[in-house]
Design goal:
Radius of gyration: 17 Å
CATH superfamily of the largest domain: HAD superfamily/HAD-like
Shape: globular
Number of strands: 8
Structural class: alpha/beta
Oligomer: single chain
Number of helices: 9
Number of domains: 2
Order of helices and strands: EEHHHHHEHEHEHEEHE
Strand content: 5-15%
CATH architecture of the largest domain: 3-Layer(aba) Sandwich
């Protein structure tokens, strides 16, 4: 069935593995740079550094948050280094861009990445002009999703009525705080259909056809 999003006036999108498919493996390039950074910072062998990287991600929301908490890492230095990767794996999806352009109301990106990374990726995808703003990790004072305080800060900064907002994410756990605020939630990606979480309201493998088929507010 087509999703009824006729009450939605604010469209929030995660960036990585949401506005482009995970199958590009673009995030793999960034994760490899993170592992290199972890090795250098901790002196651990590669596999142990990668395991610690994943543990920080799981326990703190981002690898960076763990590095800041336990190693005093400068966040800008880390983000500049790990996001310095080729964009060759990304290309515009004309169907998705057209689907985004037809959405009524405001469109924003809500990401745990930094501003420069978001700007580079959106420009590469041909989406830079489709979004009003990006709420990035520095906007959140480096406190990542799914921390509820970060959601509250984003909502306040952009004067969002959560009841009229929908949030698209590839990470299930990041949808829970959105649902708690009253947002409609959509899990995106090949894994979405298997989700049974009650706070996930809609599931789709691909974003473009979902948006194209959704019932929208008439303006």
């Amino acid at each position: 069935m087509n999703a009824d999003l006729s009450h939605i006036g604010v469209w929030l999108f995660d960036l990585d593995n949401t506005l482009y498919p995970a199958e590009t493996e673009f995030m793999g390039l960034i994760e490899a740079r993170m592992t290199e950074f972890m090795q250098r910072e901790t002196g651990l062998p590669r596999e142990e550094a990668r395991a610690l990287q994943k543990r920080y991600l799981h326990e703190h929301g981002t690898t960076l948050a763990g590095l800041m908490a336990y190693h005093g890492v400068n966040p800008e230095k880390f983000l500049d280094e790990v996001h310095d990767v080729s964009l060759d794996r990304l290309s515009p999806d004309l169907a998705l861009n057209a689907a985004l352009a037809r959405l009524p109301g405001r469109r924003l990106v809500f990401t745990n990445g930094d501003a420069r990374h978001a700007d580079r990726v959106l420009e590469r995808l041909g989406m830079a002009e489709l979004f009003e703003a990006v709420f990035h990790i520095a906007s959140a004072d480096y406190v990542p999703k799914p921390n509820p305080a970060t959601f509250a800060r984003m909502v306040a900064e952009h004067a969002i009525d959560a009841r009229e907002a929908v949030f698209f994410e590839d990470s299930e756990k990041n949808l829970a705080p959105a649902a708690d605020l009253g947002m409609t939630t959509v899990l995106v990606g090949a894994h979405a259909a298997a989700s049974a979480a009650p706070f996930v309201h809609h599931r789709t493998e691909k974003l473009a056809p979902f948006l194209s088929a959704a019932r929208l507010k008439e303006i």
